[in-house]
Amino acid sequence: MKLLVLEAKLHLREWPQLLFTIGLPVALLVVLGLSIPGMTELGESGERAVDTQLPSIMLLLSLLITACTVVPGVLAAYREQGVLRRMSTTPVHPVRVLGAQLLINLAGGVVSTAILIVASSLAFGTAVPRQWAWFVVVFLLGSAALMAMGLVIAAVAPNAKTAPGIGSVVMMPLMLLGGVWIPRELMPDALRTVSDYSVAGPLAQALRDTWAGQAPQPVHLLVVAAGLVIFGGLAVRLFRWE
Question: Where are the transmembrane segments (predicted)?
């Protein structure tokens, strides 16, 4: 608990970064929803893109920014500044350090999600996810999997300057696979297959399903859970105090 409180205080000091992480997806949601033709018109499914597709994609973008740039940057800076080396002389286990980072950034993701849902509702009259319970499950599972990926980046990054850069290189293809650049329905078959086995693709689709009032497909949950186990295990194994 002491570690969590300390990390929370340090996290709040980086308020410009927090504003960017929260503000960029919200701004893109409003701009894209108002500027792209057809976003606010009823589609063949009887729903608008701003009701399900756009908010789920922007939520994925917010989580990717946090996982791939914020988390690696913080831990790499701790290592470079000797904070982790000093922690290594105490009874603090690496799992607790990684767990504290995961929980703090997960809390930030909750706040970002709440603001995104409110902004979408005010701008376009979008309803909250209809399968609310499943939405919470998918959000927590997907956030943990992406944060674990960010912890792996932090573990292998040589210093604080390169960590966000490495994270950005990882984030760009994940944005593509998650449908941020191209809707999953319009992807070529080969790219769609790769997307189905990435964490970002199944997570985006599962979020969209819960917004549309459907339960997520079990295979999507399985892929995201596998990502959490794999990347979480790698993060603990590759963690370095200095």
Answer: 18-36, 56-78, 102-126, 132-156, 163-182, 219-239
